[in-house]
Each structure stands twice: as C-alpha cells, then as structure tokens.
Amino acid sequence: MTSLGLDSETLNGSFNDEAEYVNHEFTGPENEKVIEVNVVDGDSNVCSSYDCNDVVNSEIGQQVHMFDSEGEIDTDSSGDEQEFHFNLNSNDEVFAIREGDGGGASPSVTHSAQRFRDEISEWVVQYQIKHSSVDALLKIFTLLPGFEKLGLPKTCRTLLQTIRQTPLRLVSPGHYYHFGITESIELLLKRLNVDRVDNDIIKIQFNVDGIPIAKSSESCLWPILGLIERIDGSVPFPVGIYHGYGKPKDPNEFLYDFVREVCLLQQIGFVYNGRKIDVEVSGFLCDAPAMAFIKCIKSHTGYYSCSKCTVKGEWAGRVVFLNEEKGEKRTDATFRNRAHVKHHNNESSSLELLGVDMIHGFPLDYMHLVCLGIMRKMLWYWIHGPLNVRMGRLRIEKISERLLDVSCYIPREFVRKPRGFNELARWKATEFRQFLLYTGPVVLKGILPSHLYGHFLTLHSAIKILVSKELCQRENTYAKSLLNHFVDHCQRFYGDTFMSYNSHNLRHLADDVLMRGHLDTFSCFPFENYLYKLKHLIRKHEKPLPQVVRRLQEFANHMRLEVTTSSLGNPLLKRKHTDGPVPSGFRGQQYREVHLRDFVLKSDSVKDCHVYLKDLDVVKVTNFFEVDSRIFFTGRKYVYRDNVFTLPCESSRFNVFLLWGLDSLNWWPLDSILCKALVIPCGKRHKCAAFPLLMSKNY
To answer: Given 147, 325, 596, 666, which residue has the most CB atoms within 10 angstroms?
Structure first.
C-alpha cells in the first residue's frame, strides 16, 4: 500500500463510484492529525492510501457534522487514543463507526471472564441501563478480589464500544443519519442463523413515518425502516433517521442516501456467505400523509388525493368522496407520464428511479386505513356523533362493562386487553383491530341498533376474509362486494362528512390483497412496534438523533437473538406435574404448558386453553403428556355449536361458532391442533363464542 500526500482539493472528486472507501483517522508524527483514505477498487482489489487534512464528499456536496459523546458538535476530532472508522461501501455511505479506546478484550482475558463481560454488556443493553449507573457498577466491581482478571473497563462507553462521534448530514431543517441497508441485512441474517437465502433473492418492504418526540415542541423523528419478507423471525431494521423541528422540507433530499444505495443494490446486489444476493424492493408501507410526502403527490385532504384512482373529491365542510363512479384506475405509466397533473406536486419523486411500481408498490395499510381510520371513527360517531347514530349513556356503559368482563378471556398473544369506552381516546391500533375482528360482534350484540350492528358486521366480515391466509384469495371477490356495500351505506347512516379519504379507499383494499396476499403481510403493525421502541431510546431532550444512533449501535453489537426450541418449530413443554387427568394405563410425564411455533397453550389458564382441531372441533385443553417422545393432550370437546351471527353471512363461514355443552374427557395427539382459539362468553348462559386466532400461521 502506497501513501501519497494530497490536499483536499486534489482528493475531492478523484474517485469513481465503483470504488470502496475506508477512512482511518490516527495521530501522526509530531501529533499531527492525519486522515488516511484507503481506496479499494472493486475489480482489482488494489488498495491505495492517501493522507489529507480534510475529507470532502463532493458528490453529496453537503456538510457533515461530527457529534461527540455528549452530543455536541465537534469539528476537531483529534485525540491521543481516539480512533474511528468510516466504513463505506461503493456508494460512499457511512455504515458504522467504531472506537478504539481499549474496548476489545485482551488476549490475557480468560474465556469465562469474556463471557462475564458479554453477559454484563447484554444486560445493560437489554434493560436500557443508563451509562452513569453502569459506570457506578463498574466502580463497585473494582472492589472484587481478582478484578483485573475480569478484563472489565472503567466506563460503560468502553464496555459497550459506544461510538464517540456521529456524522450527520444536513437535511433542512434538521439532520439525517444513514445506517445503510447492506450491513443491516447481513446483521439480521446472522442473528436469525440464516445460512442461505431462498433463490438468492431478498425482497424488502420499506416504511417511512414521522413520530413526535416532544409535546412542548415540534421535535420529531422521521425514520426509514426496512423489513425482509418471507424470512421467519424477521424484524424491522433502521436504514436512516432524520431529526428536526418539523418534517424534512424536501423529500428528495431526505431520501437521497436511501435511493442511492437501493439503486446500487439493485444493480450489483451483495455477497452473503459466498453467494451473490439480489435485492428487490417489494413496496413502501406508509400512512396517507407519509405516502403523499415521499411520492410528491396531493395529500389525503386534497381533491385529487386518491392514490389508486382519478376520482375527484367534493367540499362538504371538508373534502369528501361522493360521486365515485367517475374515477378510473391509475397505472404506473400514467403516474410517470403525469397524465393527471392535479394529482402531483411540482417536483417528481426520486423513488421513481428505483423501478418500483408507483401505484401497486404503495399498497394501502389497513392499520391506518381500517383500524385507526374507519373503526375508530365509527366508535366516535356512536358515542359523540349525530343523534341518529349516537347511543345513550346506559348503552355505552353496558358495552364498556361487557368489554371489561371479557378481558380475562383474552389470550396472551394479544398485547393489550380490552378497555372501556371511557378510555377510547387512548386506544391503540391493536385494540381497534381486536374490537373489529374478535370482541365487537359479541359485545355489541343486542345493544347497538340493528341497522348499525348489521353495517358493522359487513366491515367485520370483509376484513375477516382479507386478513385470513386461507380466505383472502378464494373469497376476495365477495370481500370486495362487502366493502362496496359498506361504503355505499356509510353516507346513508353517518352523513356526507363520513365519506373521507379512508372510506373511499376501502373500495381499493381487496385489490391490494389480491396482488400481495392477506392484510398482515403488508401492514404497518411491525413498523409501529419498532417506532415505539425507537422513541424510548431517547433519554434526554438534547441531541436526540446521536442518542438513538448510539443506542441502536450498542444493541446491534451486544444483543443476541434468543432462538428457542418452539421458534424452530419443535414444541417446548414446561411446568411438570402429576395431577392429571390422563388416560388409563398412562406412563409418562405430564405438563401444564406447551410452547408451539405460533402460540402458547396452558391447561390451567382459562384464556389459553382452547384450540381448534383440524376437523374444526373446538376443545378445552386440560392436560399435556409425553409418551415415547410423542406429545398428547387431554381435553373436552364442545358438543353443540351455532352461528354467532347470520348477516351478511353466517359466521361459520369464518369458523366462528357459538358453543355450549362439553363432551366427556378425551385425548388427541398434539399435531391434530389447527390453531389456538379465543373463546369468550356470549351473553347467554353457558354459551360462548369461539374465534380462530388469525395471527396463527396455520390459519
């Protein structure tokens, strides 16, 4: 490797796009700061080294700010032992920064000591312990005999190898940090123990959304997240994050690093375990405002806001969609050719460079459209709306009472239990989903006026079909007709103001399902969960973006993915006992709990003891036992069943039954289970309603 002294002007713009740059800063002779730039040519693998006093990214042409460990801007990065690496791939993007202050383990550290250090690091990251608290703990550890043999550092930053400086790109009116896609994908695949990717192709869904991080200011984060499709255990990963007091002014400036890297990956892919992996963009999942922002089209409040058709809205105190038969479907070609000029803003979106279909590549998200949109709006109309649809106080209290009564029957797979209507303003998207798909048909029956109850069941039945893996394609046409019927009657029941962007787009939802699969394969629920965790990485209001970047880097370095037997598809039995019941002549071990791939069953829990068998019988489980390495369960089958509702179709069409009467004790092999069941009292004595859990991959 040769070293040439060049000034910044000579260095600026002297490399082509196919080279890989790795910058190292170190202290040179006579304490002079030197930046060594290693240029690795992608074809010849020849390295050259250059020394300079300044690095300027000519192609981006924007200022890069360096934040020190306290979040302050630091333009002078010199230090005695400090070292940081800019690891860039061939598209010049910053991927990771490491510090070299002794964070690595010494060769003299024993294996057990290294394991102790790793466990401490993982504990700190998992429970988000503050650095000051860990520093105090490490100081206490120095009192232990033989502390030196543990190889523990004095500070938490060294223990976690926390990056000391965070290069941020100016994106008006804030800053942006780009993590990169390739490194995030490789890290996720390794954590999931994926040795080989099917067909050597990775399809990624991307999400862009804004989240406020303060109530007293406009401070907000705009993350770009990715999610790999068709890989078990896949979770969202960060691609880049913007922070500022207000959203980015220019969407193309905000998306610059992202678009540039995706274009490169689409051209050359990347290498994983010695195999070339191609990358495809499956689509972008966003709510309506975020989608309009990154596509550079009219927002959801505009007259020509529909992203699927050319229908024009009307003014009725707000933009509503009443005459919908006049709209024609948009296509990728008409979008790129600006055939409908009033749908677009002045500039074009840089996402058009990615080759993704600008219509079908942006599917409707039912979390925002249906759960937080239509379902929430209907509930508000029933409680605070016009007199012709508003329920009285006693009816509202009765429904709230029923919701609280069934809360103890909600299985553990649901992250939230039902709450009363008095807390409706604080309901989350998962609660609206639970009400629409499970508890609503039961708690509203006999209380909500019959015409409104039937209208609600139309939406319930349509979404029940579209969210089901088995029914979404076979019954798609029927689901579409149900949604059209629902929208047609919205104006009649709730008035013109109900006919908003969300109501109109229900007509297009079944088309996206027909192209992509059931609703949960392209929903924002996984991303919303990640955004919640991302927001809680911020510990103080100053410099939130560097804080988030450092916490995510610590998490990536020290958190291990727990792979249990059940997550690999093998049942995991827990809690041994000898209390029975068991078949006569039984010899083996009994258990109260079994963990399967998609759900957990407990024989002693009223909320987790019901299952659907493959013949669609519903069984209340009473025990699990193992004989000759085979697992069985005992239980009592429900004898009688009927429909919970019959309009707009019979509930048995979705395997939703009204049950009563338990048969005598019997036993079955564990592999006869189809899915877990949610069973709740149905208002009638000794009768209950059973719903198959739709989050089960078997259903």
So the answer is: 596
